Sequence to fold (516 residues):
Amino acid sequence: MTKIDVTVKQGRIEAERAEVLVLSHYEGESALEAQAAKVDQALGGALRGLLTSREFQGKRNQTALLHTQGKIPAKRVLFVGLGKKKEARLDQVRQALGTAAKRVCQAGARSFSTSLPGPLPQASAIETAQAMIEGAILGSYRFTEYRSNNSEEPKPLGHITVVEPQSGKLKDIQKGVRQGRASAEATAYVRDLCNHPANVMTPSRIAAEAKQIAKERGVRVKILERRDAERLGMGAFLGVARGSHEPPKFIILEYMGKARGERRGARGKNDEKHAKPIVIVGKTITFDTGGISLKPAENMEQMKADMTGGAEVLATVRAAARLRLPLHLIGILPATENMPGGRAIKPGDILTTLAGKTVEVQNTDAEGRLILADGLAYATRYKPAVILDVATLTGACMVALGQFAVGMFGNDEAVKRRVQQAGLKAGERVWEMPLWEEYFEQLRSDVADMRNIGGRGGGMITAALFLSKFVGDCPWIHLDIASTDWSERERAYISKGPTGIGTRLLIQYLLSEAER
Ligand code: BES
Ligand code: MN
Ligand code: ZN
Fold:
C-alpha cells in the first residue's frame, strides 16, 4: 500500500488551494456547518442550492461533487453526508471519510483538504481527527501488488490536509492524526499480509516481516526454529507443522517502551508497567487446508488469511513502537501451514503440548487451538499482566455473529470491560460469549486429557474453552475474528477480502492502557 501523507495546518478552508475540498453535512439540518457556510458564501450559494433542491440531503455516505469554476482556490468541493445529527457516532465519521476518499480517487484527484465536522456527542477533537484519518486511509486502500497493468486503476490517494481555523485546537488534531495514521497504517499492513497468497506469505516470510519490525526503536525479535521448538516440547505446534514442507517459525517480538517520565530522564510513575508485560498471541496459519481432515475446495483460497491474528500482532507491535507507547509488550506468533502429507498428523493422534497436557486430535482442521495451546503456554512464562489472543479460530463464530461482531471470551471481568470499550471506540465491536465449564464435557477424550473438537453445538465456545486450559491463572482474553476477518463486499472503509479487523481494537486497547 502506498503511503498517505497528512498535514495539519491552521487556516481558512475557503482559501485552501486544493484538488478537492471535502465538506460534511448532517441530514435534515437546514444550516450548513461553519466551514461549509464559508465556502458556500464564496461560491455564491452553490452548496445551499444542492440542499434546497434536495439533490443532496446529507444522508449517511451520500456524496455530491461540484466544480468551483475558479470562485475559490480549490478546484472542486465534495459534499459528504453524516446522516442524522442525533444518531451520529464516531464510526459515521470514519465511513464518511472513507466514502469521500474513494470518491476523490474516482475523480482522478490524488489529494484533498478537509476540516473537522461540528462536535459529535461524546467525541473529542482527538478522537474525531483520528477517526477521519482512519476512514480516509482505509477507505482508499487497494491491493494491486500482483497487477501487471495498473493503467486502468485510479491513482492512489497521496495527501490529506486537515485545515483548522482555531490555533488552540491544532495540538489535539495533530495527536488524533498521529494516532489515526498509526492505526490505519497498521490495518493496511495487515490487509497487505493477508492479501498476499500463501506461496509468498509463508512462515519464513512472516519471520522476515518480524525481523523488519525489530528495526523499530525498542523492539527485539527471537525466532524459534523447528529444532528449538522440539527442545522446548511444543508438541501441539509441531504436530500441526508436520504435514508441511515449509519450515515452521515460532516468533517472539518484544517491545520495551519507556515510561513517559523515563524518556525525559527521570523515573516515571509507570515504571512498574515494565515488570508485567501485556502479551498478544496471534494465530498464524499461513494456509489452512484442513490437513488430513481436508476442507472442501469451495472458498478454500480464503484460508490464505488464516494468519490474520499473527499479522495483527505484528502490526500492533509495530504501531506501539511507532507511537512510543510507555508499555512493555510481547507479541507471539506460532507460524506454520496446515497441510495434508505423508508425515501429517492423523485423526486419533495424541500430541503432548508445551504445558504438558495431552490432546487427542480428532480433527486436523481444528489446528488453530493446537498452535495457540503452545503459544499461550509460552506466554504464561512471562507472568504477564494480561494475555490477549486473536485468531480466525472457528467457522462457528461466523455462524453465530455474522460480519459485524468479534467473539470475545475471557476470565477477567475488568479486562473484558476495557477490551469492550476499546472495541466500541475503534468501531470494531466485540460481543461476549460464555466460557462456562459445563461445556468442557464436550472436549473429553477417552484416551487423552482432552480432544481438539467439541462436537456439535457451541463450536466457538468449545474452541475458546480449549484455549482456556493453557493460560494457567493469567488474566486472559480470546478474540475469535473468524466472523470479521474477510468481507464479501467493499464497504465505506472496510475492503472486500481481508479486512484487518481487530488491529485497531488492539491498538486502541494499548492506547487506553498507556493512559490508564
Ligand atoms: N481457520 C478455520 C476457521 C475459519 C473458517 C476461519 C472459516 C475463517 C473462515 C479453523 O482452523 C477451522 O477449520 N475450524 C474448524 C473447526 C472444526 C473442525 C471443529 C471449523 O470451524 O470448521
Ligand atoms: Mn482449520
Ligand atoms: Zn484455521
